[in-house]
Design goal:
The structure is a homodimer of 257-residue chains. The first copy, chain A, is built from 10 helices and 8 strands. The first copy, chain A, is α/β, with parallel strands linked by helices and 257 residues long. In chain A, strands 3-2-1-6-4-7-5 form a 7-stranded parallel sheet. In chain A, helix 1 runs parallel beside helix 7, helix 5 crosses helix 7 and helix 8 runs parallel beside helix 10. Chain A is elongated and about 85 Å long. In chain A, 37% of the residues are buried. Strand 8 of chain A pairs antiparallel with strand 5 of chain B.
């Protein structure tokens, strides 16, 4: 719940997502799902067109019921923003108003900074068909515009909430890119990798693959380079050694059966 | 079109978006819309469940018909990837495979770099209900995972395509945050702003608002600070001067009518 004392909204659910006159309950449900994906839980609805609550919203929320259950209804945009301190209005087109226009990334950073200072923030989204009225935008501190394909920039409202929420979430999320590896293995040491090189090159000398002594150094270098690039695990080096052994044994022995 | 010569896919449409066994035509349509939002136009479908093409996909694409019209059908994931050089597989959960796991931002940067070198790239997305099979993931060079709320991370497939496409688009989009301003005005010069200060302070001296000489300096400072922070335009300074004049005149004159 955003709290019964509306003069001090909870900041735990991130900035309030304020939908002005949303038309389709399905879209409200998809917004709730996108919000919870991004850790946002405070949803405010200004004069939704259909009855509220609505079954189609629940179906579209795919389990984000807690966001819908806590949603608050308001009779005007001003009422929905009254207890907030800082509001960003999401628009797709220029508004001929003097106002800061922020990218989602910069807006998210600004929202994070403010909320760390207990400044209650909200993000305003317009009705599906035509976005926010200029009178709504005028109530906000800044405009948020998503830079997308200018030839095809119309975003579904839930898509728009997702992009803004994603930037909000990743503004402090520290998940780095990484190398995934099963728990029961570890990267091969270079000594283990060099053992594979030696085994392979000895067998290639034996079978004649490296018989051209002029090209041998560059062929060896290329093989080593390729196998190094794979960043093998200890298990994978053992597998490759088994592969080499099996190929050699299969060649030496008569085929079974 | 991705080109009839499949051995050299066009790179103009960005990385190919490859959907493996998509179930709902509506989702394919929403994917097409999200793709075109992000300037992506190469769509490949591996064994879609419903007939293709499909009216429901067209309806959900909201005008992104050119992406649907150019979509190519494939009988297997391997066939859909055959003419590509670098493939990233999008997954929501860990796969117990040794493989780089990239954030969307890092994946987008890597895709941009590769495509600038004419390396044909693709991004693999799994079926709605359960994502990609491990056999599909094994065909990719890297895994892409979107860092979102770990307690509620299930994304609609079109949402997933949008986030990845958004990072692709913004990886080179240079749109900065900015101050929007109507074309027929300009920021006020400091001289114009100081003129407003002087007018206001003179009137406040006259009406007695600043009569306490001890607090006068800090009150003046606070007023100037507040008005400075608004980054007024030249038009707005003139408006404010008119507001001050009107308030004063209204006080001096008897009310009209």
């Amino acid at each position: 719940m955003a709290g019964t004392d509306r003069s001090r909204p909870s900041l735990e659910g991130g900035p309030a997502i304020v939908l002005v006159e949303p038309q389709l309950p399905e879209n409200i449900g998809m917004v709730a799902r996108a919000m919870l994906n991004c850790g946002l839980t405070t949803l405010r609805l200004v004069r939704p067109r259909e009855a509220w609550p609505h079954d189609k919203a629940v179906a579209a929320a795919s389990g984000a019921d807690r966001v819908l259950d806590a949603a608050q209804l308001f009779g005007s945009t001003a009422a929905a923003l009254a207890d907030l301190d800082y509001v960003v209005a999401t628009t797709a087109r220029p508004r001929y108003m003097t106002k800061p226009v922020l990218t989602p990334r910069d807006a998210a950073a600004g929202l994070r900074t403010r909320m760390q200072q207990s400044i209650a923030a909200g993000i305003l989204f317009g009705r599906e068909a035509r976005g926010l009225e200029n009178d709504d935008v005028a109530l906000a501190d800044a405009i948020l515009q998503v830079p997308l394909n200018p030839a095809f920039s119309s975003l579904n409202i839930a898509m728009s909430v997702l992009l803004v929420g994603y930037e909000w979430f990743t503004a402090t999320d520290a998940t780095p890119s990484a190398l995934a590896m099963p728990k029961d293995t570890r990267p091969a040491t270079k000594a283990e990798l060099f053992g594979l090189f030696e085994q392979l090159e000895a067998e290639l000398d034996t079978c004649g693959f490296l018989r051209n002594l002029q090209s041998r150094p560059s062929m060896v270098r290329n093989l080593r380079n390729m196998l190094s690039r794979a960043e093998m695990t200890e298990q994978e080096v053992r597998t490759m050694r088994g592969v080499v052994t099996c190929l050699v044994e299969g060649r030496r022995k008569p085929p079974a059966g």
